[in-house]
Amino acid sequence: MIAMRKLLPILLLLSLWSALAAAQKDPAVRPGNQSVEPFRILGNLYYVGASDITSFLIVTLEGNILLDSGYEETVPLIRDSVKKLGFKMEDVKLLLNSHSHFDHAGGLAALKHLTGAKMVAMDTEAPLLARGGKDDFRFGDDIAFPPVEVDRIVHDGDTVTLGGVTLTAHKTPGHTPGCTTWTMKVQDGGKTYDIVFVGSDTINPGVVLTHNPKYPGIAADYAHTFEVLKSLPCDIFLASHGSFFDLNGKAERLRKGETPNPFIDPEGYREHVKGTEGVYRAQLAKEAKR
């Protein structure tokens, strides 16, 4: 199981690479964008995303928060999932984002139009969202998406609060310059759990960590990211891709009534971070020999 967890980030990268190659083909067959049954993870936290491209609904007394949009084509899936769970899209008051790639931010403009929600994003990620992903340091204009205006810019360590629920924005750069890991606490069954939504700590194919003129500080940024992730308390491990945290396997176990809740997985979180940091260090060592 541990070996497989360490392989998942690599497999995910290959999946993303295939998705990019097929980006101008049929969106319906994009990897990870298949419809799944929405469900409550625990407390006021719900899953409303696709089979691998995630989206999370956080319910509060003063309106709801939605984290990540998936592709532009994922928005109808999210809308239907929110409705299926008994909630209303117009009650979404805040939109958050993990990072500005088209498989996580492509539908933000549509969601903003659909809900009237305010868009919140990290300082160094907001410009890329406003450009619709154009001039990305790795992909250029190849994975552009409808641009979205950011209503509130947050900085590393800032908090976002709605209806008594507070999320903290942690800048975890490297995958993108403003990649953001969000954390919050959720109460369920008389207990309080630390939730970590990992933005992304993987390295896309073709990205160079040393002597990268388009992102000179990328190696140091990744090093910072791993230190941040290792410092965060985590009971519930979630992320921008379901394959990072075995979304579908855990969801099936939850549906079968497994206890304790299978999403309570601090060890899985530590193994994930250890695995992706290992890939990063191996690439650094390989580049140093060139």
Describe it for me?
- By secondary structure, the protein is of the alpha/beta class.
- The protein has a single domain, classed as Metallo-beta-lactamase, Chain A (4-Layer Sandwich), CATH 3.60.15.
- Helices cover 32% and strands 21% of the residues.
- The chain is built from 8 helices and 12 strands.
- A 7-stranded mixed sheet has the order 1-2-3-4-5-6-7, covered by helices on one side. A 5-stranded mixed sheet has the order 8-9-10-11-12.
- A hairpin with an 8-residue loop joins β9 and β10.
- α1 packs across α8 and α6 packs antiparallel against α8.
- The protein starts with a helix and ends with a helix.
Task: Sum this structure up briefly.
It is built from eight helices and twelve strands. It is of the alpha/beta class and 290 residues long.
Strand element count: 12
Q: How are the strands of the largest sheet arranged?
A: 1-2-3-4-5-6-7
Q: List the uncertain runs.
A: 17-25
- Structural class by secondary-structure content: alpha/beta
Identify the CATH class. Alpha Beta
| Gross geometry | globular
Give the SSE order as H and E letters: HEEEEHEHHEHEEEEEHEHH
CATH architecture: 4-Layer Sandwich
Major β-sheet annotation: 7 strands, mixed
Q: How far apart lie the N and C ends?
A: 34 Å
Query: What is the arithmetic mean of pLDDT?
Result: 92
**Which band does the percent of strand residues land in?**
15-25%
Number of discrete helical segments = 8
- State Rg: 18 Å
**What's the CATH H-level homologous superfamily?**
Ribonuclease Z/Hydroxyacylglutathione hydrolase-like
